[in-house]
Structures are given as C-alpha cells and as structure tokens.
Amino acid sequence: MNNANRLTQEVTFSGVGVHSGETCQVRLRPGSPGGGCWMEREGERWPCLAGSVVEVERCTVLGGERTRVSTVEHLFSALAALGVYDCEIQVQGGEIPILDGSALPFVEGLKSCLEPTQAPEPLILNQPIWVGNEQSQVLALPSTICSYQYSLYYPRTPIGYQEASFEPLNESFEQKLAPARTFALEREVEWLRAQGLARGGSLDNALVVLADGFSSPLRVEQEMARHKCLDLVGDLYLLGRPLQARVLAVKAGHRWHVELAKKILRELAENAG
Ligand SMILES: [Zn+2]
Prior knowledge:
The protein is an alpha+beta fold. About 25% of the residues lie in helices and about 30% in strands.
C-alpha cells in the first residue's frame, strides 16, 4: 500500500471519546487534489500538520485558536497506510472516536471508498534526524525505502521487552499493525480515573496490563509494540507527505513522534532555503 488514494465518498465514524467519555463523530470527505488534509470543528479549520499540534499528553491533540480535537493518531495511521493525503475531516465533539482502540475499524470503513490518485512527493532525508532524551529516542535515517521499528521496555510487567517492525511496501498494515489496541497499565488506569481522565476507556477499547497478564487475549503478537508503531505511523502523517526513511523508536511516545515530525519539516525547509 505505497500508492496514494483519494476518497470517493463521505465516510462517518461515531462512538465514545476515550478521554472525554462523550459521543463524538468524525466525517471524512474527499479533499481537493494536492490540497492536503484539513480538520474542522465548530467553524474553525486547521491543516493536519505538526504545526497544528497543541498537546501530546497521552494522545495527539490538534487545534486552532478556539477549538481542539484529541486522539487523532489512530485515524491518521489508517489514512497514512491507505495513502490518503487530501481530505476534509469534520469533527463533532472534542475527540476522534476510540472505536475498539485500534486502527482496524478505520481501515475497514475507508478501504472500500478509495480510488487511486497521484502520490505526493515523498520526503527524502539526506541526513540522520533524531530527537529524544536519556529515556526515549526516535531516529530517522536516510533510506531507499520506508520502514519503522519500535522497541518498548516495561520492566516488571508482563510486557517486558517488545519490538515491532513494519515495512509499508512489503507488509500489510491491516494485518500487522491495525489490529493492535491501545493499552494501559492497571496502575495508570487507576490514576487516570482519579484525575477524571480516560472517562470513555473500557475493556472494549483498551487492553489493560495487569500484574500477571492482560485483561483480554492478545489479538496479535507483541501487541503493545505494534500499537506504538501504529501511533508512530499516525503521528508522522503530520508531515503531510509520505516519509522515505528508516525510523527507529525506543520507549518513545506522542511527544517525541511529533518532535521528530517538526524537526524533519524544519530541517528540510532550511535545506531547501
Ligand atoms: Zn494509540
């Protein structure tokens, strides 16, 4: 699925928002060719680019002056994998519905409403670009193809060390990454609830990591690492174009994924100038 596609019709998804617990709806419509992806809520509209990110705690939040939309990453991951770069996304409620916590319902809902279109020019790196600190890193290396690798380490939990990789040209996003669900550690869930967060979170849309196992059987091997890889693909959709690079992430998250996207855009703009 390296080719680009455009939507042929409107597609709508509705459901609970994992953070607000409120019912949300997202409506996708075909965009103008080459016009990019735009999001609109309550009459305000912004481009789906890294510069529109307003928050990166626990999920990726985009917004403008007045309004914002949370948890864009799983929908964006599906759009990136399906090669949809021009679309209009209208949101009611402050969040993209969490659905089953994975990207699979988005892929399934969108894939039959696509037709091939001209692919945007990929972003090609000619130098390594990385972000991070002592705990977390994301590194993008020049490469002839696009690939992702994600390593997690959660000591003293059933997750332990996990890694997942994905090559869009040679592997199926729908089979490999899309089914991997959002996860949270049991102690995080208690804390989030106490803070009034994750109000829409449930065992129907998240995998909870218990002291001695998981809240439900895993859908795919290395499900947590695959989910983080799904998040990374979704956050890098904020580049606005496909990335041709080898991307390695270690114990990262939305903050560093988005930082990488911003740094890539900054450095490419400097080189072009
Ligand atoms: Zn996620």
